[in-house]
Amino acid sequence: MEQTNWLSLIIATLTPTIVGTIYYHPKLFGTVWMKSIGLTEEDFKKQNRVLLFIISLVMSFILAFFLTNFNNSTGQEGAFDTFGHGAFHGLILSLFIIMPVLVTSGMYELKNFKNIVINFVYWLITLMLMGGIVDLMNHWPNS
Fold first, then answer.
1. pLDDT in tens, the chain (143 residues)
2. What is the pTM assigned to this prediction?
3. DSSP string, the chain
């Protein structure tokens, strides 16, 4: 971790929240997503938003930390330190880990296809951005 660019880790940690705020906005996919699982805005007002935000940030940090180490493992230096290379890692993780998990759990939870696709595309975009950020910035100076 001595070569970790902490700024990239912080930005990557905040990425799911930023992308989610935009992606799940009612004017984009928020309303469709809520209808796909039978929720209303009143349901969200009942949540403990502070706890939700804290847990989300911790989970996002875990993802960012994993991506930092996954994208910058041995043999991934030099010419591979690009946004595109990191985004490709995010794509691969989305297709081979996120999609199978979301589809399988979605089927057992009786979620409709629309809900599964909306959630998958969110994670695809988010992980590609996170991967790109940590790969591009990993060898920038920490100062």
1. 457 788 999 999 999 999 999 999 999 999 999 999 998 888 888 889 899 999 999 999 999 999 988 877 655 566 667 899 899 999 999 999 999 999 999 999 999 999 999 999 999 999 999 999 998 887 665 54
2. 0.90
3. -TT--HHHHHHHHHHHHHHHHHHTSTTTTHHHHHHHHT--HHHHHTS-HHHHHHHHHHHHHHHHHHHHHHHTSTT--GGG-SHHHHHHHHHHHIIIIIHHHHHHHHHHTT--HHHHHHHHHHHHHHHHHHHHHHHHHTTS---
